[in-house]
Amino acid sequence: MRNLLHPKWLLLLNTAAVIVLALLCYGQFAVIRSLLPAGSVSTWSWLGGALAGVALSTLGYALGQWRRQQEVSTLYCLLTLVGYSALICIGVSLDTELLPRDVPRWMVPTDPLVYLITFLMPTLAHAGYALVVRLTPAGKDYSVLTNVGLALAAPLSWLVLIMLPGGLLLGSILPDWLGSGLLVTGLVVGTVMFLFYLVRVVYILDLRRGEYGQEFSLLWKILLGIVLPLLGLMVNNGLFWGNFGGTETGIFGNFSSPWFYGLAVLNGMLLCLPASPNRWLHLLLLFGRSVLLGYTFYFFLVFLPFLPLALLAVILIGTGFLMLTPLVLLLVHVRELAADWEQLRLAFSGRVLLVVLLSGVCTLPLFITARYLADRHTLHQALDYRYAPDYTCRYTLNEHALARTLGVVKQHKDRNSGGGPFGSHVPYLSLYFNWLVLDNLTLSDTKIADLEQVFLGELPEKTEQAARPFAVPAPAAPVLTDVITKSTYDARQQAWVSQVELRVANTDTTQRAGEYTTTLDLPPGCWVGDYYLDMNGRREHGILAEKKAAAWVYAQILNETQVRDPGLLAYRNNRQLSLRVYPVTGQTPRVTGMQLLHKEPVTLLLDGREVRLGTAASVPVTVPVVANGGDVVYMSGAAKQRLPLVRRRPYFHFLLDVSERQQQQKQAYARRLEQQFGAGVLTDTATRFTLVDAYATPVAAGANWKQELANHEHTGGFYLDGALRQLLVQAFLRPRATYPVPVVVTDNLAAAVLGADLAEFQAAYPESDRFYVLDANSHLTAHSLRHEAGRVLSEVAAGTSLPAPASLVRAWPTAAQPQAYLADDTLAEIVLVHPVAPMRPALAAGGRWQTGLLLHGYQQWQAFHPEAAEDQRVPFVRASFRAGILTPFTAYLALENPAQKAALQRKQDQVLSGKAALDVDEGESNQPTAVPLDEYIGLLVLAAVGLAAWHLRRLQPV
User: Fold this and answer.
1) In CATH, what number does 645-810 get?
2) Each residue of 307-316: pLDDT tens digit?
3) Where in the chain is the domain with CATH 3.40.50?
4) Which whole-number Å values give the CA distances from 731 to 519, 688, 693, 695, 725, in the listed order?
5) Whole-model pTM?
6) Which end of the chain is less congested by CB atoms within 10 angstroms, N or C?
7) Across the chain, how many H-helices and E-strands are there?
8) Concatenated DSSP letters for 310-330?
9) Residue 681 CB contacts under 8 Å (≥ 6 apart), including other chains
10) Reduced to 3 DSSP states, what percent helix, strand and coil does the chain have, rounded to the nearest 5?
């Protein structure tokens, strides 16, 4: 332990920690600064200046002592304990000054005081250890019992004072302010003295272990290394009085894994083993002890922020001594490693010992990191396959590894599962897992259930809403009262620029605050170029931001107790806009609006009102409009009518459910198909079959599909959505004179993984959006690919000819060499010139409408190339920002103050740096994203327990 006196430790434990503390706190301050009153800003400034002053003084002292090759002095240790303890106490006393109650909590996910306590505790711990070494030099005789008595004096004194019938004597003699000040001072001094003498007892025992004998040394090693750690784990997990809501919770975190118990026993055994006379066995023992040093140090870090509360924990809870076990055990562990080093230096060089020691210390962190990286790889593979697949690749995932990874994700998501204040989180490891595996984001319960259904075949749980005993009518929502439009034709970019202004108000004028919501279908060739919301007498233009980040900020503002003024405009799907405005209060109307860019006059339906934008163009758009670069073409209805008409030949493509739930029924598929379609269809060379479970396995043309069906080994659930997507993508990228008619064969369509619709692929089915389902009763039903895919549109009568005569379609650009087929209607369409070739999202054009055409053309290209979504998502979002054109990946958000805008920027940076398939929140819950360090704030409540006991005693009659 003498090495702790070297000043180099101050650079790591103080200087580096304070730098991290300053960066974290400044990040919080920069967001909320505009909301802070002048007094709070001043408090932040002088407290930060005080912290900088003591940190720079410590740095200067460390460098000076290092240059003079001197150890840290006793005076430094005393001043550090006093100064940094005072700084923490002052910070706690100024809690409401640093973070006023009217500052929204979601803007500051971690309380600055948690940072202050967490990052200053290493300095205090080092000063305490160093002071013990300085005041306990070797070669002198020390009384163990005396130091034990001094260690117990503080908690016993406080216990006696609290239990006195009249309460603390200070409260009846001194003024309240002076009594409270002395109480806090006494608590801090008593805690420091208690920890000092406790550590000193262990240090003295180590110095005198030869005097007490090997047997006594072994006994207290067993006590500290095995008995107390196991007892602490069992107490934490509630094994003595019934578990807290399950096996995955604990008082200080989730330490229920058998690994914690096993490592505790192994660690204790290695510390108890005597040094072997065989140098190689002794070297192996050094390696084992160095490996488990990470385990001991981990629990030291876990309980380090709680050391200021150690005295209260000992006074109020007898098992509070278990909190101190890691503090003492770390001393024993380090001392054993030092003794091993001294003995082995006679047999090995210092370089060999250093390599062995460092290798051991790095083993556990590297093992955990490797495990988390494997979880990240497994999870990302599953997310890529489900949400951004490469249809040219064959995926093979380890379902068992995925099940374990999703289990860990769910465990780390559960912040308070009915047990201790920290739920099922594992302190620090949950933080590390969320950073390394989840990019500091999350995976919603919906997506977890989705992945489990696809790969593990588990059906999502059905949640039944409890019936209310009395029907409570919902308050009337705000409605649209007026729409004002203005359209101007921009000859330079040959497009219309229209302003659409909405006025919304409450029908129930007594309603305090309501949210106005509506949807708006945009035709092809119409883009949103701006959005605004009037608030507080001014017009606030919306910020074009990443969609998930904007939706999260909007949700957090709605959850506030104070009334704010956000407005959100985003795509609900590829063509439908969603508008939300909050709040609409009383009789006061809210004014909001948007700018629309469109090539031709359009008619929109807005809350039941027809809104006409633009007038009859003097020059109709009768020819294709090619965007700069030639990758995207806008085909108006008139231009489409000039294309040649062709009729393609349909063929059946049967999608057979071969998931685990269908293993007993798939033998009946051939009989059902022959009965419904006839043997001729099944033997037709054009007919295709695909076996669908978690993966879509196409049967090669001409192969025996019955044999393939019989030999197929099932994997996971019925991932119908992926099979349909793969079929439509292939049909679009390889346009032919034939087109598929999908027929799904399954006993239970409700068990299939099927999205709401496949409207984004409508360019792949110009003839018809119908697909069919053949169920266990040989009933054939029609469904729509365009909307509500799971709903039955109609039942096909037996003997009906399928498919119906194919509709005529338009061939583009020519019937001889078609590159795409378009529906024969008067609706405009966006056409990709080279749908197979790569396309870049960072585009520019001659005008904003042209740029919007390129952006929306790229969005359509990406739907058929989902494998490019991850790599090109950020450039696509940035291109949308530069152009000021809304896309399905961005949103316009109107905010009230600079703090909200700063919070939006912070959340957006976090989302854009993570994986696209990960989530910001739980969707409907819209809970603030918390940082695991927040867990420690709960234990600070223990500090109030002592004061509460004091005041309760004072209220009791004498």
Assistant:
1) 3.40.50
2) 666 556 555 5
3) 645-810
4) 31, 13, 21, 18, 10
5) 0.84
6) C
7) 29, 25
8) HHHHHHH-GGGGGGGHHHHHH
9) 652, 673, 687
10) 50, 15, 35
